[in-house]
Design a protein that fits this description.
The chain is an alpha/beta fold. The protein is built from five helices and 15 strands.
Length: 286
């Protein structure tokens, strides 16, 4: 496939799974009406995110845990039809729960990722994933990550080195909890969210979709800002802090070729100059 019409969503979701599916179905149909072939929805859009990141989980049972092979994911597959759809959910695996994202089409599950990096108290509610892997889809080779994962350059780089042409990051990224900005568009955590999106696209010279929760849930106020970014780090479409769908169309193969023609960030790497290093938190190398 050459030219692909793709979209990233900023929308509000909660604990009521049936209401969430109603929203998901509406967004899929809205995207389909715009000939979108790849649609990214936010982190935790099936069942909502956590009410707080302050460690107080006593009054929050958390989102419903869904099996990857369960009826809810089969329902999502049916809704996707001929589209490729990426959706965040709480995954059940035995007695463990994971903050996960699944990619589906009408043909079934194409890929699944468990969030690796857990901010603040999130590890009290979820187990952690352990890796990043790209996979093939009808719209190209994709790599997925969730929210805080994108704060670590290694996450997107691992996907790019595994051949990902399109990076999809789904988030429930809130505004700052301190020095709260009256205007969410001026929030410092929103600025970080946007910077990470552009940097991850540019440094890996890949197409980037960023979906995010919008509105508020519990004590969290989300920054929206769903967007599509090209391999040069330029934002092609952006919802701003409001709910909406950011839609862009581009020839993925041509965009990657153009971006990598002269300055090939993956090609020009020097792994011998930066071998794997591991320092304890707070340590400084000599």
């Amino acid at each position: 496939m050459s030219t692909v019409r793709m979209a990233a969503v900023a929308a509000e979701f909660g604990r009521d799974l049936e209401k969430d599916f109603t929203i998901v179905e509406r967004l899929i149909e809205e995207a389909r009406a715009q000939d979108v072939r790849l649609l990214a929805l936010p982190e935790a859009c099936l069942g909502g995110y956590l009410l707080s990141l302050d460690g107080d989980t006593a009054h929050d049972e958390g989102p419903p845990a869904l099996a990857l092979a369960g009826p809810e994911i089969r329902r999502l597959i049916a809704l996707a039809g001929d589209m490729t759809v990426v959706v965040g959910y709480c995954e059940a695996d035995g007695d463990r729960r994971y903050n996960s994202v699944v990619c589906v089409s009408g043909d079934g599950v194409l890929g699944n990722h468990r969030k690796v990096h857990q901010p603040l108290s999130e590890d009290a509610s979820y187990s952690s994933g352990d890796g990043f892997h790209a996979f093939d889809t009808p719209v190209g080779r994709l790599g997925m990550m969730i929210c805080y994962d994108k704060a670590f350059p290694e996450s997107a780089r691992a996907l790019a080195l595994d051949g990902a042409e399109i990076g999809v990051c789904v988030s429930a990224w809130p505004g700052s909890r301190t020095n709260v900005a009256a205007d969410l568009a001026q929030d410092r955590w929103k600025r970080r969210f946007d910077l990470f999106d552009r940097a991850r696209a540019l440094e890996n010279q890949m197409v980037w979709l960023s979906a995010n929760q919008a509105g508020a849930f519990g004590s969290l106020r989300f920054v929206g800002s769903a967007k599509v970014v090209d391999p040069g780090g330029e934002v092609l479409a952006d919802t701003g802090v409001e709910a909406g769908i950011a839609v862009a169309e581009l020839d993925v193969a041509k965009a990657l070729e153009n971006a990598r023609r002269s300055m090939g960030h993956l090609r020009d790497r020097r792994p011998d100059a930066y071998p794997p290093l591991s320092y304890p938190v707070g340590a400084v190398s000599a």
